[in-house]
Each structure stands twice: as C-alpha cells, then as structure tokens.
Amino acid sequence: MRRTSLDMVYELAKQDERVVFIGSDLGAGTLDAFRDEMPDRFFMEGVSEANIIGMAAGLAMDGFIPYVNTIATFLTRRCFEQVAMDLCLHNLPVRLIANGGGLVYAPLGPTHLAIEDMAIMRALPRMTVVAPADKEEMARFIPLTLDLPGPVYIRLGKGGDPIVSDERKGFTVGKAILMREPGRVLLVSTGVMTNRALTAAELLNESGLGCGVLHMHTVKPLDDEALLDLASQVEAIVTIEEHTLVGGLGSAVRDLLCDRLVTAAPPVLRLGIPDTFPDKYGTQDDLLAYYGLQPDALAHSIREFAAKVG
Amino acid sequence: MPLEARQAHGSHTTAKTPNLDERSLALRRLVIKALEGGGRGHLGSALSLIEILRALYDDTLRFDSARPDWPERDRFILSKGHGCLALYAILADKGFFPMAELVKFCHFDGILGGHPDAGKVPGVEASTGALGHGLPIGLGLALAARLQKRDSRVFVVMGDGEINEGSVWEAAMCAGKHNLSNLTAIVDYNKLQSYGRTAEVQDLEPLADKWRSFGFAVHEVDGHDMADLNRTFSALPRDPNRPSAVICHTVKGKGISYAEGSPAWHHKSKISDEEVVALYKELEA
Predict the structure, then answer these.
(1) Which of B72, B127, B143 is the best residue to mutate to test the A interface, defined by the most A CB atoms within 10 Å of its own CB?
(2) Which among A5, A94, A112, B15 could disulfide-bond with A108, CB atoms 3.0 to 4.6 Å apart, if both were Cys?
C-alpha cells in the first residue's frame, strides 16, 4: 500500500508541477526515480517533523501540493501543533502519508504503534482522514488528492493486504462503500480491518446471522447519509477498527447515531483496541489476535452481541 | 561568560540608541490606541519591535497594501505573534486595513485578535501565536519562491524567548542546507521572556555563533537605531549563498520609561484609563 501510494505520488508529480514530495529520513532508495527526474521537487529533510510540516505549509501557501511521508506516530503525535496550526488553521492542501497505521509496527513496540492517530486527526477542523482497504483502493484514491481542499491524513496498512476493494464500486472521498448488503447486523469498518470484517461476515452468514459490511474508508468527514440510511434497516451495528476505542471510527459512528437518529438508534458494539499501550510484540496479526480483532474472534463477539440484542 | 557580562553585552548596543523620533513615537501611539481599545495586550513585546518593523515596511519590503496577495511581494512573518500590536500599527499605517480597526483590538467582531490571523487580517501572511512556527513556514515560502523563480524574499521575526523552541533550530538547520539566501531570520533580542531574563530562564548565548554554526550569515544591530537597521537590511543577503540572521538588540517596552526592561509589562490586562493617559504622556513628541 505504501509503495503504491508513493508510486502514485511520483506519477502525479510527473503530470503536475505543483506536486512536491517531503520525507523525513525514509528508507534508502525511497522514490529514487522521483529524486533523479525531479530533484527540485524532492525533499528529504531529516528527522525534524515539526519543521517539515511548517515547510510544507509554506510551500502550500504559494501554490504547491506537498505530499509528506513518514511513520504515522511521528506525523500525528510529534508535530501535532504544526499539523493543527500550520495546516488546518490555514486550510492548506498538504497530504500526510502515514506509514504503519494501527499495529503494523508490532515488533517495534508502543513508540511506533499508531493506534490513536485517527482520533488525533479527527479532532482537527478541516482535516480529512482516509484509510483505504488495500493497494488497489489506494491507487484509486491518491489521484483524487490533487484537488481535495485542505489537509488530508492518509493511513497506510502494512502492505500485501488482501485485495477486497472492487473497482466497479468506484471511490469517492467521504462516500462509504457498501461491500455487502446487511442482514440483521451491519458491520462498519475502515482500513485493512474491512477485509477481516468481510471474512467475519462470511463466517456469520454461514451460521445464519446475516451481516452487511460498510467500508468507511473516509473516517472524516463520515458518510452520515449512508450510515443513517443503513442504521434504520438493521437491528445492530458493530464497528471494527485497528485503533483504540477512544475517538476513532466507533466513536464517530456512535456520535452520529446519538446526534442524528430521531428514532431509537440500533445498539452499537465497538470492537477495537482498549485504552492502553500494547504490552506485546510479535506481528500485526499477533496483536490483532491478542485484542480479539481477527475474523474468528470478531465473529464470536458479533454473534454474542446479536444474541443479546435479539 | 559570567551572567553580568552577558547582560552588559546585551545592553551596551542599545545604550547609544538615539532618542525616538516622531515617527517611532507615532507608531507607538497607534499601539497604545489598540491596547486601549482591547484593554489588554503584550505591550512590552510590541514596543521592542517597532523600529524593526518600521525599517522593514518603510524601506525594505516589497509590497502593495491594495493587493496583499500580489505574488511578487516579499513575505513577512511575525513569528512572535504576541507582538502583534506593533504589526497592526504598521499595517494600519500602511493602509492594509482602516485605522478604525485598531480600537476594535480583541473585540468580538474585530479582525485584530491577540495573535495575528492570516484569515482575517490583510497583510498577515501566517497565523502565529504558537511559538516556533514562523521559521519553518518561512523556509517553505523561500523554497517556493526559488522553485517558482520569483525574486520574493522572506523575512521572519522571532522573539528571544521563542527561539527556545526546537522547531526553530530544525528549520535553521534546513535553511542552511538549502543555502536559502532569500530567507532572513530576525531575532528581537530584548533579553526578557515572560518569566524573566533570558539569561536566567534559558540562556541563548553565544547567540550569533549559534546562528553562524547553523549556516547563517549573521549580523548584530541596535534594534532601535533606524540608520543601523536600514544599513543592515539594505545589505541583505549578507552572503549570496547563505540565509541571513539579524540579531536585533532591543529593549522590551522601549519608549515607556517604567515599562523598559520590566517583565511586568510583557503582557497587561485590565489596563485602566489612568494607565492609558500615562502611556500617551510618555509618548508625547
């Protein structure tokens, strides 16, 4: 997914002179072709995220569209004030490409786990937050970023994630994609959790519990219309995210239902990471299993919840 | 260097400052006008800046107040946003917005807040107030000018307390690397931050050497001496291949005898009518 996003930035830069790339201290060889062919618009500025965001703001103020890339934790926690003030307050078209959203960097521990990044970014006015499901969806999304107003936070998965997105369903920022028609239950997921939600839905369907899957690739702005429409058709909603339960997709969904549904909202179960710093290493899959976020465990939690509801 | 020697180093250049002339006094009266309107403000922080801004806007910057977004303009960022009373005074003086706005400083429906907002105030390039943001943004503006082959220059004024922030030095390192001769970092070195003397809170010395070591061509001036300032700004860039740094030795609260060098005047709220009268009296021609 990361490779696809950076390749797309390179392609955009070839077509549009407004595109510049800014990295911190990325892996050797990152976007060599970009650097070789368009050296004036390729910046690798060292481990200095606060400066990089301000610099991107300055470039954007005079008409450039900077794509900034580094590890998600350092784009969110490290330079939060710069993102809030330099980018959001000025409403500038800077794109933050965040490596390793969620638990991708499991072996590296809590310093590198971006499990509150969506909450942090969602809290900022004018910020758009997008977490594509796979590299094909990423490829459909990145070209759209050229013309989006304001700053955009792009959450990347590990790479090699199963392809579950469907070109025929298209991609519009802020418009959720219904991947599977709902039965009694609607699962709402984002990022790479959508592939796990689909598998869980399959398992549940086989055991007689009809589950739909709404892929909320854009966590901000939330697709209110799709969610409210579907909420009125189901008995229960389950949100699934690779993120803490504080302020992420589940919070956004529940806020919307509480604020906007005139009739009683269906019960909501939020599945995600508890309010903690993960205390294990291993792999992303290991940690997802640890927190009950792999398909079998998801199916189990959803089945129990549906039984209580129904 | 012993503390007393450092303080002396900071003050010796301002001891020979000529008396403030009528234009400097008039700009200060505009500052008081806004302060009076808002009933509050960072007075000391604004008064150390007046001559720096005067030299920039009267004789250095290329701008058109009727077209604040003219692409060919020079960019100016007041990174120490809390010094905005001085910026508002000079922008009003130059016609960026009506003088009548000054008395609405910090009013609910005014455009002039306690920190400058680029979305509201014509002539303000960047919203500042959170410290340490101006130089990174200025660096981006300077790079943009170079990429677009514009000869616009970028000037960023920072406070001495402000440059405690690490982001300033990240940007300084980066500007040095890119040899940005169209970027000038200006430090309003009034030797006082909010709590007290910079030498005691977070000593900056040797300050010129710091900027030099980050790749800047450095010059130190008396920040209240118009001739000295104009000579310095007209000689920019000091090196055709390096960014410039101008360290302006100033006096916090300059022009108000009892506010000069007093941390109590860094920020004042609930200014009384009597205090306002006294301030104007200090600034009579």
Answers:
(1) B143
(2) A112
